[in-house]
Amino acid sequence: MEKIIMKATLRMERGKNSCKRLRKTGQIPGVIYKDGEEGTSVFVDGKTLWHALHTEAGEHAVISLDIQGGAKTSEKTVITHEIQIDPVSDKIIHIDFHEISLTELIKVSVPVHTKGDSIGIKEGGVLNLVVWELQVECLALDIPENITVNIESLKVGDSVYIKDIPNPPKVKILGDPEQLILGVIPPHAEAEVAPAPAVEGEAAVGVEPEVIKKGKIEEEGEEAAAEEK
Fold first, then answer.
1. What is the pLDDT of residues 139-180, one digit of tens each?
2. For 106-192, CATH number?
3. pTM (2 decimals)?
4. Which residue in 29, 63, 69, 133 has the fewest CB atoms around it within 10 Å?
5. Which CATH number applies to 4-100+212-228: 3.40.50.2300, 2.40.240.10, 3.40.50.300, 1.10.8.60?
């Protein structure tokens, strides 16, 4: 995975009115967080951000922020932590970044994808995907787009657990080895299968780097959706 270079500008003004003015000019307000440090307020170009998040890496994109506006230009390597979307316009209205090190292992959640046509499904069975994301540990540039599970050989009644999934190159899949990921069930059993409990450490929104604790979201970010309605 390659780094994406993107410009950012320090925000000297903070608050909802300042953020509203930025959005009207196509800029997206955001905050860069790092363990034990106060967040750095910035803004980035909305179109550039959209393109950065729609590469193959998606929200796992490693971004090199070229930050301007201070006494001197600085550079920070970040990944997205939380993206706030306006529920009406479906546009990004605020973004949180987390600063990372390219030489430090991080923990993120990536989606589970299936590959192949299951024997059991061809016979009338139903694929029951229990866990939609898995937490992995790796370097930032080695984050996989997804964890792919080959289901071609699965028959009705067969299941796949974390222990059955091989680790991708340079990546370690985390979690209880006995955690059920998916299975092929008889059609009549589909309605009887209860949802599995969430995997410990699984991200609720976007990527959750465990090496960096989530900072307190600014008031301006929390109020953004309401003021854009």
1. 998 999 899 999 999 999 999 999 999 999 999 999 999 999
2. 2.170.120.20
3. 0.69
4. 69
5. 2.40.240.10
